[in-house]
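Quick check before the chapter quiz. The format below is the same one you will see on the exam, so make sure you can read both the input and the output lines.
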Amino acid sequence: MFFTVLKYLSGPLMGAVIGYFTNYIAVRMLFRPKKEIRICGRRVPFTPGAIPKEQPRIARAVGNTVAKNLITGEDLKKKILSDESEKLIIKTADDILDKDLKTELNMLPGMDEAAYAEARDMICDTVTKEIKKALCSLYVSRIIKEKGTKLIMDMVDGTMLSMFLQPSMIEPVLDQIGVQAEIFLEQESWGYIRPAVEEKVDEIEKRSGYELMTELGSSREAIHHMIHDVFHQVLGQKVDEIMETLDIAGIIEDKINAMDMDELETLVLDVMKKELDMIVNLGALVGFVLGLVNLVTIIL
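Here is the expected output.
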């Protein structure tokens, strides 16, 4: 009895085995052989495997499909301009601007303590230089002579001293004082201006970004409103240009072409292992069913 049943089932079982291994080999041949095989100078058929042979075409097709159907400019715009994205950017801006200016600047890319100190010295030097330049361009000698003479004459006006003191007597003295003042500004003012500038910079860098903006007439709400406007007006209009610049299709195509076959095989199997195993098992099932059909045909 056992051998009789085994005799009848041998056909379907053989069909299942053949179907299983046929599909298994077909799936493996998607990736193997990974390189072209030649015998006596002639290429062996089906070498390399389907995916290694068509890797550039597959990379191009996947890239175009993703760029045109999966990640479109409209999709990117919706994601970028979502309420969640805006809230995240506003929170990030708040976190940064609530810190003192020195901490904010040190958060910039490439800005460490040494770079910050160098930039700070450069700013102090530049501001000091401009202040000194502005002072030296004021014609201090003429100002002291003109304003000083008038001030002194106004002070002695109505007194007995005004009967003896004349502008011609005051002007030469003030003229010399003005000349010495200009020499002082040119030669020694740096040593007085630079410490004052440093002290002011020390004071400013301890304030938060929002404190400084408040002094300039802005506010936290104004910053939030500006972020909203930039978000929805400027960035929203530039999404299509950003998409063209990104060239998502080209990026994906280059990434796939740059993969070696082991890496690409691992990627595909990670994504489709369950489906490929189903195809192999389906081969066994189809082979078994065809064997049963053949058996029924023989019996009938």
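If your answer matched, good. The chain has 14 helices and two strands.
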